[in-house]
TrEMBL record:
This is Uncharacterized protein. The chain crosses the membrane at residues 6-25. It comes from the Archaea. Keywords: Membrane, Transmembrane, Transmembrane helix.
Amino acid sequence: MVLEFFWFAFGLVVTVSIIAIGAYIGTLRALDTFYGDGNSMFLSEEFHGRQEP
């Protein structure tokens, strides 16, 4: 019983951590796209989503 609760709690912590890391990386990518200049940390030269003047 206690072992099952431990594994459930451990799985829940791992799941929440993975979701939080994904949301953090997604937020960084969105901010980098919105505020970034040509020196993007995430976007390569082949990215065609925004046009340079």
